[in-house]
Amino acid sequence: MSTLKAVRGTRDLLPPETALWNRIEETARRVFARYNFGEIRTPVFEDTALFARGVGEETDIVSKEMYTWEDRERFDVSGMSSSWLHQNSGFTHSESNVKLGEHTIDLVITRDATLRTHDQSPSPITVTELVQFKPELKQYDVDRLIELVEEFVTSTGNALVLGKLVVPETRNLQATGHPDTQHRVFVEQIAGNFFQSSQRLTLRPENTAGVVRAYIEHNLGETGQLQKLFYIGPQFRRERPQKGRYRQFSQIGAEVIGPPSAGSESPLRDAEVLEMLATLLDELEITGWTLNINSVGSAADRARYNEVLRAALADVAGKMCGDCQRRAVTNPLRVLDCKVEADQAYIEALPRMADSLDEESKAHFAAVTAALDEAGVEYTRNHRLVRGLDYYTRTTFEFTHGGLGAQNALLGGGRYDGLSEAIGGPKAPGIGFAMGEDRLVLTLEAQEEAKAEKVDAYIAPLGEGMNAAALALSRELRRAGLRVELGDGSFRLKKSFEAADKTARRIVILGEDELKSGILTVKEFASGEQSKVARTELKMILAMAAKA
Ligand code: HAM
Fold first, then answer.
1. Are 147 and 130 in contact (CB under 8 A)?
2. Atom of ligand 1 nearest to the CA of 387
3. What are phi and psi of 65, to 5 degrees?
4. What letter does residue 291 receive in the DSSP assignment?
5. What is the mean pLDDT of residues 49-62?
6. pLDDT band at residue 176, thresholds of 50, 70 and 90?
7. Residue 323: how many CB atoms within 10 A of its CB?
8. Taking the CB of residue 233, how many other CB atoms lie within 10 A of it?
């Protein structure tokens, strides 16, 4: 039998790596708490329309990468039972979801009836009915009900028990079975639509749309306060998997959203979010990141810039790659994302977004950068940063890291002042970001690997008689803060060299001559250079090399 494996683009996370994931999440939670963010957890799947309207039908994420399915029609048993109860009356007792052995009866009722005896005199009796609600009539359900009626008669000693199978009037009745009057089981039809229609659902490819949907659904805007919400969880995109790009990946994100009266449009919010991110990356001990920022302006600015770009591209697109030629017509902004080397000169010469911004957007962006300058957060203005989601307005940003290769975005985000209205909510400007947790882990692992690099020196005693002297030399160097591996005098010189090459940057040979003369033989593996070093200078030389 073929073995089953995790689906392409998904992964198992195992110890010890999971410890790093937990450390990242704990650090993020601690930092978010300091900035007064609270956690939000939204479902991993949503109505497809949310992403189509929120993220944008034309984006790569929505048009190519979503996991979407048709959720089939569902039978609403509780709606049907309450409707049936409403139409039937005159019970003396009713109880729902009654356990009978291993089975559950939807409803057990008792009603008073009148029985005519053979002398025709009426005599009052009480009848018990076991009622089951089903989407259609199936012989299997009739048979099961017959069994349950019989079991009920036996266990209660009550002879007057009827079974009733209630099905919607519109469903095919003749097709599959018949009521069995002999066993006191009857079928009743009831009018009404008891089916919840099918729905198109999508595994969330990102979480901003879901958070804004929840903001609207729970009327969070009515508090009049800014909502500061963070989330940690899986997202799903059908992308071509590669290092740092998966089909199930995890994001740590946060959103600041609220009515304009709460200050949600203020550039200070943008700067505060960016400052928080710089702090978070520092606390995660991620070094060497770059913050790229830009402004994509208002929706009107973007539309204007699109036209400016379209016109400029009309002259040069023919000389560019196939993707650019297509985008020059369908979505000129996306041309700015092109990575093809030969196209770069053309792209750099295109008009810039900054020149299409209106005065308000320009002033907003200037206020964001002024606050970042004041707070000492370093950034680079990247005129080509437009981001791949349609909801962005004004500030957009990405933190990149050189160690990540092609997928170099550690995190991305921006302002989305019109998103709430686009999905039917009130005016609720917002700004937020999401970091790729998988990419944070890769970056930290690479950093730790670099740190766990070779030690500064390997001390190789020549002969067992030199072991004690080698320990003394190691102690001296280690006490000076150097990382030292100590060999063993029983090793032949070749074996010492091999062991040293695997663990250390240099080998220091300590034989009787070296001990007497105080001049040691040192070989650096990277350059292959061998030199004589005075023992008194060894510490200093190794320390300088370690810092270089
Ligand atoms: P995004 O740029 O699509 O933005 O994704 C944010 C981050 O998620 C990326 O920078 C990257 O680190 C990570 N990421 C995206 N796709 C993958 C993948 N296939 N595998 C691994 N990591 C991935 C958003 O999702 C927006 N919702 C961010 C936002 C929040 N904007 C405003 N608020």
1. no
2. 2
3. -115, 5
4. E
5. 93
6. very low
7. 15
8. 17
Q: Which of 481, 491, 486, 488 is nearest to 503 (CA)?
A: 486
Hey, how many other C-beta atoms are within 10 angstroms of the C-beta on 222? 9
Residue corresponding to tokens 């009626």: 149
Q: Using an 8 Å Cβ cutoff, are 349 and 19 in contact? A: no
Complete DSSP assignment for 293-307: EEE---HHHHHHHHH
CA angle, corner 212, sides to 431 and 206, nearest 5? 80
Query: Best substitution site from 439, 442, 443, 444 to test ligand 1's pocket, by max atoms within 8 Å of Cβ?
Result: 439
Entry pTM:
0.73
Please state the φ and ψ torsions of residue 129, each to the nearest 5 degrees. -120, 135
pLDDT at 344: 93
Q: What does each C-alpha distance from 3 to 6, 12 come to in angstroms?
A: 10, 16
- How many angstroms does the Cα of residue 337 sit away from the middle of ligand 1? 15
**Closest listed residue to residue 209, CA positions, set 429, 46, 28:** 46
Question: What does the DSSP 8-state code read for residue 55?
Answer: I
Nearest to 508 by CA among 461, 452, 544: 461
Give the max Cα distance, the chain.
133
- Tell me the CA–centroid distance for residue 355 and ligand 1, in Å: 28
Residues within a 6 A CB radius of ligand 1: 206-208, 237, 239, 244-246, 249, 251, 253, 255, 409-414, 416, 432-436, 438-439
Buried b (16+ CB within 10 A) or exposed e, 278-287: bebbeebebe
Length of the chain as a residue count: 548
